[in-house]
Design goal:
By secondary structure, the chain is of the alpha+beta class. The protein has helices at about 90-105, 115-130, and strands at about 5-10, 15-25, 30-35, 40-55, 60-70, 75-80, 85. Strands 1-2-4-5-6 form a 5-stranded mixed β-barrel. A hairpin with a 2-residue loop joins strand 2 and strand 3 (about 30-35).
Length: about 140
Amino acid sequence: MKTTVVNIVTPDGPVYDSEASMVSVRATSGEMGILPGHIPTVAPLAVGVVRVQTANNKTELVAVSGGFVEIRAEQVTILSPSAEMADSIDLARAKEALKRAETRLQAKKDGVDVKRAEAALSRAINRINVKEGNI
């Protein structure tokens, strides 16, 4: 079975580095399935989940908060402001972030950056969904 190397990197360092038989990402233009030998591509990512199907048919999930994917024939590199493996997501912390974002959006007071609150809400929902497997 052919595989491709998958690297997920944040400003804090590498989050994921392994071989995969398939990678699925959510680009801003829609879902992308990436197999070994894919044509070279660069695409912006939306907040979402990266699904990595390993060579032994196990699916690993990584929550990303946007960024870019660079695809080469033998390698997939994802650069994201933040990324977390599903098993390392703190569910209680993610739910607290969700509540804070919802409170900010409901308040709609002067000085509340609505776009920033919406982005925080989206990231929190994504982290919760990845942790709970609701993808």
